[in-house]
Amino acid sequence: MKREFTVASSSAVLTMGLFLSAAVMTPSRNFAQTGAQSNAADVVSAQGALTDTVDSNKTKPGDPVRVTLSNKVRLTNGTELPAGTAIIGEVSTDDMQLNGTTKLALRFTKAETKGGEVVPIKATIVGVFPPESEDISGRPITPGDEVTGSLPQHPDSVDELGALPGVDLHSNVSSSNSGVLVTATKHDVKLKRGSEIALTIAQTATAHGE
Most buried of 39, 40, 44, 126, CB within 10 angstroms? Predict the structure, then answer.
């Protein structure tokens, strides 16, 4: 099933396709991108799955959040993060002063390999998707593996309306957070275990915010 992505920048509007194993067509996703590619030399794309459900009604700032990489990622300095590496973060607070009734801010600052190596990173969320257990052909897949196609690769900012039903995603590389999920309703913002998280990652000298 094909999802359409619109990436807007000062120079062009690009339409990109994303194939997911959804049972029904979902609404279009609109991305606003500014200063595109200015950080392309420093960041790489990654994708993975959330290891536990994160619910804005049940969490508080400082609560841990983990995403497991589904594929090997090589950082621009040569450091390799194998598949299965944990991207470690926490629930944070909105530092972009976004309008919304309910918010869930996340901040990912470290990568920890299965061998115990810890790498300080700055991660930016560029996409969030519900958990799936099958690909578009109906074949079983590991959580984190069904995101295929094209996403904004190295945007300075993402404003995705309807990232999840009734929930918008906002992120900015200049923010101390990796991204903020916002809803205008009184309902909580919930990311279920196995939810797909698409990221851009840059290595830093120390964990961002420390």
Answer: 126
DSSP 8-state symbol, 27: P
Please, is 171 exposed, middle or buried when counting C-beta atoms within 10 Å of its C-beta (0-12, 13-18, 19+)? buried
Rounded to whole angstroms, what are the CA distances from 78 to 46, 72, 73, 122, 169?
15, 12, 10, 16, 30
Strand partners, 87: 67, 111
CA distance 180 to 191: 12
pTM above 0.85, yes or no: no
Q: Which two tokens stand for residue 110?
A: 């470290």
Closest residue by Cα to residue 191 from 121, 44, 89, 111:
89
Going by pLDDT thresholds of 50, 70 and 90, the confidence category of residue 202 is: very high
Domains of the chain: 31-37+44-203 (2.40.128)
